[in-house]
Design brief:
This protein is of the alpha+beta class and about 120 residues long. A hairpin with a 4-residue loop joins strand 4 and strand 5. The radius of gyration is 14 Å and the shape is globular.
């Protein structure tokens, strides 16, 4: 398992990825990573599950193609686990907030559960 000292995963790299470089963000994922997304359309009993770096990359391309800003609010890395909060703002003023819990393997994201909510 990765550690907080592993140079492949650190807070600064995560910040650069989240705040505007989806290629950097995607590089933090293991090839076989799993991302579970929970929100009001994909509820806890039926989350959206993305398998592997390719599926996650397609989702990141979609998200980062939108006219919005992303800010890493908080990040905690401890051993082979991490958690972070992200806030986003669309150009029209709609806000999105998400929390992620991450399991790391060899310094890469192996599993992530993301819970998000947005203005409607």
């Amino acid at each position: 398992m990765g550690t907080a000292a592993d140079p492949a995963f650190d807070r600064d790299t995560l910040r650069r990825g989240v705040e505007g470089n989806p290629d950097i963000l995607l590089s933090l994922y293991a090839d076989d990573a799993e991302l579970r997304i929970v929100d009001h359309t994909t509820q806890p009993s039926h989350p959206k599950v993305l398998h592997g770096r390719n599926e996650i990359g397609r989702m990141l391309e979609d998200v980062y193609s939108r006219d919005m800003s992303h800010t890493l609010e908080r990040c905690v890395i401890q051993g082979d686990e991490a958690a972070y909060s992200e806030s986003c703002l669309y150009a029209d003023g709609v806000r999105v907030f998400s929390e992620s819990m991450i399991g790391l393997r060899d310094g890469k994201i192996a599993e992530q559960t993301l819970v998000q909510a947005w203005d409607e």
